[in-house]
């Protein structure tokens, strides 16, 4: 799309097409789009005369880059050893089943992105789930779902203007 090409052109111009500034360019692209759409990466690679694989390698190496749209909320479930032994797998299963989302994925309505991490340093109150930075201790499948259903209640819809 012309609009998309313009975004890439502006970003490339901002850094004088300096390939050494690839990461800041990708950060700017992500700031514009919310993630790194493949078409845009393709366009950026073309303008910098770089192979797409190089941009893809950067995008997958740094955890701060996202190749898929993120949800409005960030849900993190600890699956470290203690949380695991205290029931994290059942919580994860319940979330995946109820919201049709796998770990690392985003719900179709983009309500939240669900990720699993190892030990968040709160083993004494395991299992732990973190929603937008807020810790929920000693969660169960039921209490985790209750928290997540609460997210949806505050937002009638997070799909905006039919964005794709
Ligand atoms: S294993 Fe979950 S907080 Fe340590």
H/I helix tally: 7
* Overall mean pLDDT: 90
Number of domains: 2
CATH class of the largest domain: Alpha Beta
Q: What is the string of SSEs from the N terminus onward?
A: HHHHEHHEEEH
Word description of this protein:
The chain has helices at residues 2-14, 22-33, 38-47, 52-61, 81-85, 88-99, 141-153, and strands spanning 73-78, 112-117, 129-131, 134-136. A four-stranded mixed beta sheet has the order 2-1-3-4, with helices on one face. The chain folds into two domains: 2-61; 73-153, Glutaredoxin (3-Layer(aba) Sandwich). Strand 3 and strand 4 form a beta hairpin. Helix 3 packs across helix 4. Residues 156-164 have low confidence and may be disordered. With 164 residues, it is α+β, with helices and mostly antiparallel strands. Helix content is 46%, strand content 11%. FE2/S2 (inorganic) cluster is lined by residues 78, 80-83, 119-123, 126, 128.
Which helices and strands appear, and what pairs or packs with what?
Layout (H helix, E strand, L loop, with lengths): L1 H13 L7 H12 L4 H10 L4 H10 L11 E6 L2 H5 L2 H12 L12 E6 L11 E3 L2 E3 L4 H13 L11
Parallel strand pairs: 1-2
Antiparallel strand pairs: 1-3, 3-4
FE2/S2 (inorganic) cluster binds next to helix 5.
Question: What's the gist of this structure?
Answer:
By secondary structure, this protein is of the alpha+beta class.
